[in-house]
Amino acid sequence: MVTFFIALALLIGGYFVYSRVTERVFATDDRKTPAIANPDGVDITPLPKWKAFLIELLNIAGTGPIFGAISGALFGPIVFVWIVIGCILGGAVHDYFSGMISSRNNGNSIVKLAGKYAGKAFEHIMRLFSVVLLILVTAVFVVSPSTLLESLTGGNVKAWIWMIIILVYYFISTIVPIDKVIGKIYPLFGIILIVMAVAVIVGIMANSNSYPMLELIGHLKDFSNANGSLPWWPFMMTTVACGAVSGFHATQSPMIAKCIKSEKEGRQIFYGAMVAEGIIALIWAAAAMAFFRVDTQEGWSALSAIGGSSNSVNEISKGVLGPIGTVLAIVGVVICPITSGDTALRSCRLIVAEAFHINQKKIRTRIILTLPLFGLVIAISIWNFADAANFNILWRWFAWSNQALAAASLWVSTIYLLKHGTNKYKSLFTGIPAIFMTAVIVIYILAEPNLALGRFIPYYLANIIGISVTSAIFIFYLVMLFIRKGTVIDEEEPLVTEQVAPAPNKKEVKESRWKRFFKRRRKKK
After folding, report:
1. Half-sphere exposure of 115 (CA within 13 A, CB side)
2. b/e per residue, 314-336, with b = 16+ CB within 10 A?
3. Average per-residue pLDDT in the chain?
4. pLDDT tens digits along 349-363
5. CA–CA separation, 62 vs 193, rounded Å?
6. Which of 231, 358, 403, 512 is least buried, going by the fewest C-beta atoms within 10 A?
7. Is residue 23 a contact partner of residue 266, using CB atoms and an 8 Å limit?
8. H or E element: which one contains 144?
9. What dihedral do alpha carbons 252, 258, 259, 265 form, nearest 10°?
10. pLDDT in tens, 57-99
11. Peptide bond before 234: cis, by omega within 30 degrees of 0?
């Protein structure tokens, strides 16, 4: 248990120490946020800090820190190192800057921010990645709860029926104002997610004789590679995304950035929610290693067979907590993915609306925007149900596109600090995590055996090419950093408050009518 509690203490300490450093680097002030300066009653509306925190936690979490962390347990206790370092230095910083830069730019999405700070070409790439990722997330979080609900009802209610019910909810929650559905039920679900994680780890500790936690000392090796599977680098970083670093969060933070009432709230909401997710991931990784005994060949194979899924969650919860655990498992693996799917679709709508400069105050406009996106989600969901193997294909695409977006979002934050910060060297604060995630995603694409390139490129060669490409990018960044004579202060987009035009003066209206009359007379002559 020593390793677990040290990791837990580091995550909590990281919040109290490193979050304040992050806040100073960003340099918060007393300016008005979009929710105060320009509320629209639909997407931009002020929320209490505690409610915004729980909504942000559920938006970014879902089953990500559960399924991903359980799969990450296959790498052994070294996954603790990635969760702690990745969360404090990478993921929480990533989420904080995504939300706060958005807040200073009228709540714009990460796509719009990419265009402003990195250029139009980068914006188009980011838009493509974001829309694809969000549609994939929505589809993934339709399939997993539908199949579980079918099994829980003994097959009496088929998965496609549950899929229709979930999709109807997605559509409704996507088009109604954020405080009508999400703002009312998400805080409750966020509390359930936390209670579920705490109950599981308490159960593991209470049954430590049956489920001993693994320590890093004595098990400092790659369990996955030792059992003939993929090595920890870079595959652990794509397997455990939620809880460490996840690009999906960059699409969610701007949504809550529209609802914060002060920049001072950003540290608790964005950085704090990510640390909370890191703690949840830490708990589930520790529970999976202890429950399945991954230090044994039999235990590792048992977990590998089912991976991070609703089945593994159900086994752990039921085995550790009995009937209560079964109820928690049902709530966790059904409600949590649904609450990530609907906000993913909502974010997708906002990004598309930004691209075409469409005002979304009218519900008819929101419906028209949502329908084609909804059609794509339905098509992918049907394709998913056609063959069980299709889900694995979908998940692999989600894994690499998610971390590619994380690297891109960190680069946007780095460019922001270069252009807007008071000290250009502060850009290293996000630049170093950005270069690390760039290396992860480049090597992953080249080395993943189930992707096209990974079938032909050996692992060692993928690392050589990936490190070379990343080094070239890092050198280019350093050159740009050192040749700049000084920091260019780039003003953020001003918050435009709605103003009512004054009523026209009757005398002025009358005079203008006479002017138009004489103008027409002169033209006739």
Report:
1. 15
2. bbbbbbbbeeebeebbbbbbbbb
3. 85
4. 888 888 888 888 888
5. 8
6. 512
7. yes
8. helix 120-152
9. 80
10. 988 887 778 888 999 999 999 999 999 999 999 999 999 999 9
11. yes
How buried is 255 (Cβ within 10 angstroms: 0-12 exposed, 13-18 middle, 19+ buried)? buried
Q: Convert the pLDDT of each residue in 370-404 to its tens digit.
A: 899 989 988 888 887 777 666 667 777 777 888 99
CA dist 145 and 381 (Å) reads: 12
CB 433 within 8 A of CB 90: yes
Question: Tens digit of pLDDT for each residue in 238-284?
Answer: 999 999 999 989 988 998 999 999 999 999 999 999 999 999 999 99
Percent of the chain that is helix, strand, coil (3-state, to 5): 75, 0, 25
Within 10 angstroms of residue 45's Cβ, the number of other Cβ atoms is: 17
- Cα 508 from chain centroid? 55
* pLDDT number for residue 96: 98
Whole-model pTM: value is 0.86
**Cβ distance 84 to 7 under 8 Å?**
yes
Structural tokens at position 220: 């400092």
Radius of gyration of the chain (CA): 25
- The span from the CA of 442 to the CA of 448, in Å, is 10
Q: Whose CA is closest to 65, among 282, 360, 381, 380?
A: 282
The pLDDT tens digits of the residues spanning 297-325 come to: 999 999 998 887 777 887 888 888 887 77
Taken in order 359, 364, 368, 373, the sign of the CA dihedral is: positive
| Three-state DSSP state, 294 | coil
DSSP 363-413: HHHHHHHHHHHHHHHHHHHHHHHH-THHHHHHHHHHHHHHHHHHHHHHHHH
Question: Which residue, among 77, 397, 399, has the nearest Cα to 234 in the 3D structure?
Answer: 399
pLDDT of residue 515: 57
Q: For residues 20 and 41, give the distance between their C-alpha atoms in angstroms, rounded to a whole number.
A: 32
What letters, b where the CB count within 10 A reaches 16 and e where it falls short, cover 266-294? bbbbbbbbbbbbbbbbbbbbbbbbbbbbb
Taking residues 445-464, report their average pLDDT: 88
pLDDT tops 80 at residue 168? yes
For residue 174, give the amino acid letter: T
Measured distance CA(283)–CA(66) in Å, rounded: 9
Per-residue model confidence (pLDDT) at position 490:
47
The one-letter code for the residue type at 270 is F
